[in-house]
Amino acid sequence: MNSNISTDSAIKLNETSLSHLGNNIRVPNYDRHQITNGIVHIGVGGFHRAHQALYLDNYFHQNPGSEWGICGVGLLEFDKRMRDALNSQDCLYTLVERSPEGDRARVIGAITEYLFAPDNRQAVIDTLADPKCRIVTLTITEGGYYYIEGSGEFDANHPTIQYDLQHPDEPIGVYGFLTAALNRRRQQGIAPFTVLSCDNLQGNGNIARKMLTAFAQMQNPELGHWVAEQVAFPNCMVDRITPATTPADIKMVAEQFNIDDAFPVVTEPFLQWVVEDNFSAGRPNWESVGVQMTSDVHPYEMMKIRLLNASHLLIGYLGSLAGYTYVHEVMADPLIRQAVDHLMAEVTPTLQPVPGIDLDNYKKTLIERFANPKIRDQLPRLCLNSSAKMPKFVLGSVRDALQQGAAIEYMSLTVAAWFRYLNGNDDQGNTIPIDDPIAGTLTQLAHLNGSDAKPLLNLTEIFGDLSQSSHFVESVTNHLHRLYEFGAKETLVLNHTKSDR
Ligand SMILES: NC(=O)c1ccc[n+]([C@@H]2O[C@H](COP(=O)([O-])OP(=O)(O)OC[C@H]3O[C@@H](n4cnc5c(N)ncnc54)[C@H](O)[C@@H]3O)[C@@H](O)[C@H]2O)c1
Ligand SMILES: O=P(O)(O)OC[C@@H](O)[C@@H](O)[C@H](O)[C@H](O)CO
Were 299 and a residue from 53, 245, 352, 363 both cysteine, which residue would form a disulfide, CB within 3.0 to 4.6 Å? Predict the structure, then answer.
């Protein structure tokens, strides 16, 4: 590996240049033209490319000529950059695993086609309706499911949903595309595809089922019935910390690996995928490449979401308030690291036993993963769209702990730190940009009410009935007062002293 290579002299990644790449870089050794696309993936971002596509790349090395290639789909304007990058390099991209021990790059070939829906909506529907498509996988973020947290119901009034109901042949949203294709399959006697959600939602398959069925029902009750009866929606737990790609990553790939890649992915070495074995139209033999197929994903997803993702929120808010930029910097701060330990200790009694997993060891590994200085995971990424994540990552644990009469100190601190963060400046007075679909409402409530937590806790679409718990309200309020009065770090000193007593 030559670190003196300049970005300009790097080799442009595409099929013809694969054989010119350094021999330290693993490239697809299978014929990509022999692969047919049995999977359509909607929401090709960093995570899909570091996770599912990697598993399939490994699979194709063992099974050339497979029927499980991926056709990627982007529904949003946001995906233009992915379209341009993938189309300019034959859908190939570089995946770099980074750890203190070193960096390893490989080129992934599992995505063989990419469709940008705004360019050609019919092409997306045709691909989904094609009998060759047997699984549709999703990473469309928590907010992409149009799910009302407080009630658990479908957000039928959302403008995207209303648009798609009125324009069934020219949809813009995920359910519009899926139902357009499923409707055609039903009319033509083609079996439906399986819908596999790979987003960080507890019961992601169940949620996808409920939402898609509700949408299909509104469009056409018979179709709704068919979807409910015929479509399989396995749950799954996904795990691999994958930061957003930065210009520095593109430069690193060029300089360290001599690859000119418009959109590489940087990730950690850790990788896990636990999938409920419930597929109506077949699936790859995923076990052969390390996927854990099981009849019950629930304990795994509870463990991952409540320990890893909840800790990420606490790290994101406290770290931002304390003026840090990256997760590993936050983990080097003993006060915040201790808070993460305390949060995980509080969450643990709310978890079920997880087959084959020693929770103490799992938590230790999480701390090590968070501390990985090489992946430079960004705090704003962790805090993005918190209104959709807080209920899923933290509030379930709060409810369970309240029911058990157990401690909620650090769970409440996570909520309070979010409220303080929503004020939009850190403890030194620097601006923190708030990126959330309901940022306007949230920041207005935070500004108007400062250390009074109640108005934010009264947002039932996020907190449901939790504002009825005086213990929870009091605990959040106490932390919020301290965060405003003393700042994040001093609050932690006070908290830890109390907890250690
Ligand atoms: N990055 C990680 O570490 C990681 C790890 C595990 C799971 N995940 C899951 O994957 C999701 C995506 O993460 P990422 O890192 O790939 O993000 P990303 O920003 O790189 O990509 C997000 C993708 O979701 C699509 N999307 C967003 N909102 C949508 C909507 N309303 N309808 C349709 N598509 C929509 C975007 O167009 C984009 O293609 C996360 O929200 C999470 O649920 C991520
Ligand atoms: O991707 P999100 O927005 O659901 O959550 C942010 C992070 O917590 C998440 O991406 C983790 O890095 C990931 O879940 C690790 O597997």
Answer: 352
pLDDT digits (tens, 9 = 90+) for 244-277: 999 999 999 999 999 999 999 999 999 999 999 9
Query: Residue 46: CB within 6 Å of ligand 1?
Result: yes
Nearest to 71 by CA among 53, 50, 55, 58: 53
pLDDT per residue over 221-239, tens digit each? 999 999 999 999 999 999 9
Instruction: Judge residue 330's burial from the number of C-beta atoms within 10 Å of its C-beta, 0-12 exposed, 13-18 middle, 19 or more buried.
Output: buried
Amino acid at 177: F
Nearest CA to ligand 1 atom 32: 144
| pLDDT at 128 exceeding the cut of 80 | yes
CA-based nearest residue to 410, from 294, 305, 492: 492
CATH code, 298-500 = 1.10.1040.10
Token digits of residue 359: 């929770």
Of all atoms in ligand 2, which is nearest to the CA of residue 313? 8
Look at strands 259-260 and 11-12 and give their pairing. Answer: parallel
Q: Which CATH superfamily is domain 7-294 in?
A: NAD(P)-binding Rossmann-like Domain (3.40.50.720)
242 touches ligand 1 (CB under 6 Å): yes
- Structural domain spans, the chain: 7-294, 298-500
Nearest CA to ligand 1 atom 36: 43
- Distance (Å) from CA 473 to ligand 1 centroid: 32
For ligand 1, atom 18, name the residue with the nearest CA. 45
Ligand nearest to the CA of residue 389, numbered in listed order: 2
- DSSP 8-state code for residue 40: E
